[in-house]
Design goal:
InterPro entries: PAP (IPR039633), PAP/fibrillin_dom (IPR006843). By secondary structure, the protein is α+β, with helices and mostly antiparallel strands. The protein contains three helices and eight strands, in the order H-H-E-H-E-E-E-E-E-E-E.
Length: about 160
Amino acid sequence: RESLKKELLQLSTEAKRGLSTTPEQKEKIYDIFTKLESMNPTKKTLKSPLVNAAWSLKYTTSESILGKGGLPRVGPQLQVIDVANLYAENSEVVNLLGLKIPSKIEATLSPVSDCQTDVKFDRFVIGPVKFNAPDLKGNLDITYLDEDLRLTRGDLGNIFVLTR
């Protein structure tokens, strides 16, 4: 398991979080992702205290999260999960006309099983500007969780690799 985790993180780094993934890299990452899912040491991921943390995005297939077609992301992309308070937050820094502007999305979690939660996006914050999110919803299935790695599948078929 540890060697697969190491290989997955190395490939994620080479793929620049998914920004420059070759078809071969994408296939290899997906293969390792599914192998690790089958080895998940935490069966009830949303009930585990391990899930509550600030997680750093290492790889995703989600073009919107990568910033393709929008403002370029600079620096780490973080996701805070706090199941006890049914709260999640995605934060990042975007490049707007050469300025680095912090942004985040705040969300409410509604667990639907021991591993899966609905997500309702509540508020966007870009620099000093805050505004309510339109009626946006999603779903996350946490398919692998240990002390330092979290693998998640989104409702649109995207995969996410995150580390503590």
